[in-house]
Amino acid sequence: MNTRRPVAVLGGIRLPFARQNGPYARASNQDMLTATLDALIGKFGLEGQVLGEVAAGAVLKHSRDFNLTRECVLGSRLAAETPAYDVQQACGTGLETAILVGGKIALGQIECGVAGGVDTTSDAPLAVGEDLRQVLLDLSRARTAGARLKALSRIRPQQLMPEIPRNSEPRTGLSMGEHTALMAREWGIGRPEQDELAAESHRKLAAAYDDGFLDDLVMPYLGLERDQNLRPDSTEEKLAKLKPVFGGPEGTMTAGNSTPLSDGASTVLLASEEWAAQRGLTIQAHLVDAETAAVDYVHKREGLLMAPAYAVPPLLDRNGLTLQDFDFYEIHEAFAAQVLCTLRAWEDPVFCRERLGRAEPLGSIERERINVHGGSLAAGHPFAATGGRIIAGLAKTLHERGTGRGLISICAAGGMGVTAIMEANHG
Amino acid sequence: MADRYGQLVNTPLGRIISKQVGLPAPTPLERHELGQPVISGPVLLGAASGSRLTGTAASVLASIGAEVSTLVQDEVRRAAADAGLSAAMFNPDTAGREDTFKALVFDASGIKDSDSLREAWSFFHPTIRRVRRSGRVIVLGTPPETGQDPSEAIAQRALEGLVRSIGKEVRQGATAQLLYVAPEGEAVLESALRFFLSPRSAYVSGQVVRITPGDGDQPAVDWEQPLQQRVALVTGAARGIGQAIAEVLARDGAHVVAVDIPAQASQLEAVAQGIGGSWLEADITEEGAPAAIASHLLEHHDGVDAIIHNAGITRDKTLGRMDEALWQQVLAVNLLAPQRIDAELFSREVVREHGRVVCVSSISGIAGNAGQTNYGTSKAGIIGMVQAWAHRTGQRGVTINAVAPGFIETQMTAAMPLATREAGRRMNSLRQGGLPVDVAETVAWLASPASGGLNGNVVRVCGQSLIGA
Asked: Does B12 touch chain A (CB under 8 A)?
């Protein structure tokens, strides 16, 4: 039990990501995740099988979806005996589920499992306001007609406005974009470099579709075949015309270099090498190691989305690697500025000395190796589904190359960052 | 005596009127107060590529606990990291207008030819308008005379024009200085950098100071009281600038031996008692005075660490009307006495190791002044004395420097005719007269044991007067 087994990534599949209130406006999280899970089952011939587990999650979740993933398993073509559980770690959810499933495989607790994530910003959960909630709870506790009447009499028209989930940090009141605008200011990230990164993301994703790279990674859903947000003709010049949406009128962040609110789902199949061999399934890559970090953006004023910059160094150390020892880097493009801040931080002697306690900076990364098939700026970012998109894409990229190593870095709300190392299957 | 105009234009109504009419509006200068940090506000550190002083500058900024930002330049970031500075990044392209600095420090020592002067432009162009009230601009360079080749010497010399022009452009009490740091002089840069960053240098601007390795030692000093355990002789200490010098040296920890003529005895005693010092009545022009001073210092203090030649008089007349007595009196007090005192104190080894001689020259000694041929001659002679002795005092760590005050608000200037006084006050970059304490702070800095790298300098305390070099 105490030996660590290699964790094989066999592949994944996802929905084309849709923009908020687009084609998936009426699709629920359960609809999307079940459809994606079924597609994965079909892709790997898992119909009727009992898997070790299915771990998935959503960031925005209805209260009725307390057992979302298990419900999806029951609605899928997997054997109903497959256990499941939900995970929620903001935008890190998708990658974190893979780390959890992979950890159990490594420990020999399970032979295979599915990691996934889903999110809808269209079919969003609305909550009743706190005042009304208290009234309704009191009403349900009331034992007599008089008590019920008394509770009902406290309802006021203004309490009927629902609470809409907000994309803001409860402890700062700032949206993620506003937080990132602060980071961009702190790190001196300019508008042109952000727009350039965004345009590149679109170009690369468009190329990935055109080359057929995504043919077996993305399945058509509700009439959508490609990510709705993708603009193959996007250019720095066009992006430069957009007005700033975060950081005030002089801000550098626009709707073009920030990810839009999106809907979608993704799943990935992980297994032990033996399990894969028994079924004759190809191992695309290995999930080698992972590290999650968090920063104090409340009191120490570290940038909200800087945690990946902290997570990667110990991950490298533990694996005896340098930042340059990778052939591919998958850095989640929540905002172009987030990627650029992270890169600059790793290059910066002051950050590396003062905050990471390292004598030398981690150094630069070859830009051509980052997000080679496009990133979240082009594809969109249904929060919990991004991890699965990245893992499946990187696994296939490594498999096609036949050798090499990839680094995944995903920033998450709440000042967290989830990172992982994958390697091509040399077998 | 008080600068009533300066006070008036700094009232709300005065501000409106002076702005409407276009009158000069002097900014009240920030001055040093005990317990205040060296600099109160963020410092932006930048460098020309290949500069050699950035690391030292960063270390000094770290040791004063400054809040530092740097441009996104790898060399500077590395220097900041090595100095343990948690420096922020500053990108002028993305910075908001509210991002301002108390000081801009630019290491120009990497500028090796005239084309590279552009690096100075790129640093200052987007930042110069971000300098705060009573802000500081400091450029570090290599003394042209130590340049590797003519190109480097030319480019480094060019920095003087840049800094002096910046001094005239920056507003609201901000100052600009050029520190030429000789090879190996880095170790003793701290004293000068601290002085010029701090409000102690309030009325010093447009100055070019040379820093040499000296005897190489940077003694550990308590920067709050660098003159602790030091004995300082101050001539002409009964009033005016001399009194301020005595007070500031005492504040910085020195035991002051205050000297003035017997006619000033009661005032002299009061000054000395007020600062816990001692006093010695002496007419320094008398033949026996140097010996008496030397004996007093040996007997009561076993020597002296700092000699401040401050005593000075004016006897103004145009040369054609000036009789010999007026000429001789001024020369005797201002130029001959300091030489005789030094000769006595050095020959009898009264001056201890790492001794400091600081002479008070004058802007009249640099630029000349009508009606002051005697005074101008004596004060230019003081500069000659500093330059002549600077090479010869070195071996025991002794240094000699001068301050050259411009228009300082004293009883002497209060007695000037109104028009001359107002012209003197306003014709400088800070648009106001200095205070005796401004001269005193500069003297105290040069007298500090940490200032071993400063030798043979003449530092003007003139608010960058339009008069003179």
From this structure: no
Handedness of CA A89, A94, A99, A100 (dihedral sign): positive
Q: Could you say which DSSP state residue B372 is in?
A: B
pTM for the model: 0.89
| Residue A279 backbone phi and psi in degrees, to 5 | -100, 0
Q: Helices B74-82 and B54-63 sit at what angle, rounded to 10 degrees?
A: 40
Structure-token pair, residue A3 = 């030996």
Beta-bridged to residue B259, according to DSSP, are B235, B280
**Residue B353: CA atoms inside 13 Å, Cβ hemisphere, count?**
6
**Which residue in A184, A185, A350 is closest to B77 by CB distance?**
A350
Confidence of residue A217 (pLDDT cuts 50, 70, 90): very high
B430: tokens are: 């800070």
How many beta-carbon pairs under 8 angstroms link A with B? 52
Question: CB-based contact (8 Å) between B81 and chain A?
Answer: yes
On chain B, the residues whose CB falls within 8 A of the CB of A347 are: 74
Of B9-23, B239-253, B286-300, B316-330, the one with minimum mean pLDDT is: B9-23
Q: How confident is the model at residue A161 (pLDDT cuts 50, 70, 90)?
A: confident
- As a whole number, the mean pLDDT across chain A is 95
In A, minimum Cα distance to B68 occurs at: A350
Tokens (6 digits) for A195: 């727009």
At B378, the amino acid letter reads: S
pLDDT tens for A239-251 read: 999 999 998 888 8
Residues of A in contact with B87 (CB under 8 A): 350
Taking CA A390 as the corner, what is the angle to CA A385 and CA A395, rounded to the nearest 5 degrees? 130
Average pLDDT over residues B395-420: 88
Place of tokens 């790190």: A187
Q: In the 8-state DSSP scheme, what is residue B210?
A: E
Residues of A in contact with B54 (CB under 8 A): none
The pLDDT value given to residue A1: 44
pLDDT of residue B1: 45
Concatenated DSSP letters of A325-369:
S-SEEEE--SBHHHHHHHHHHHH-HHIIIIIT--SS------GGG
pLDDT tens digit sequence for A343-381: 999 999 999 999 999 999 999 999 999 999 999 999 999
Closest Cα partner for A411 from A318, A343, A325?
A343
Average pLDDT of the segment spanning B202-215: 93
Could you report the per-residue pLDDT of A274-326, keeping only the tens digit for each? 999 999 999 999 999 999 999 999 998 899 999 999 999 999 999 999 999 99
Q: Distance of CA B235 to CAs B122, B243, B264, B279, B438, Å?
A: 47, 9, 12, 10, 17
Which residue in this structure is represented by tokens 């003394």? B143
Q: What is the ipTM of this complex?
A: 0.82
Q: Reduced to 3 states, what is the DSSP secondary structure of residue B306?
A: strand
Residues 6+ apart with CB under 8 A from A377: A197, A198, A201, A202, A257, A258, A259, A333, A336
Q: Which residues of A touch B70 (CB under 8 A)?
A: 350
B203: contact with A, CB 8 A cutoff: no
Q: Among positive and negative, which fits the CA dihedral A108, A109, A111, A115?
A: negative
Asked if B187 has any chain A CB less than 8 Å from its own CB, the reply is no
Q: Report the 10 Å Cβ neighbour count for A367.
A: 12
B93 touches chain A (CB under 8 A): yes
State the pLDDT at residue B393: 66
Of B74, B84, B94, the CB nearest to A184: B94
The 3-state DSSP class for residue A257 equals coil
Question: CB atoms < 10 A from the CB of A250, how many?
Answer: 12
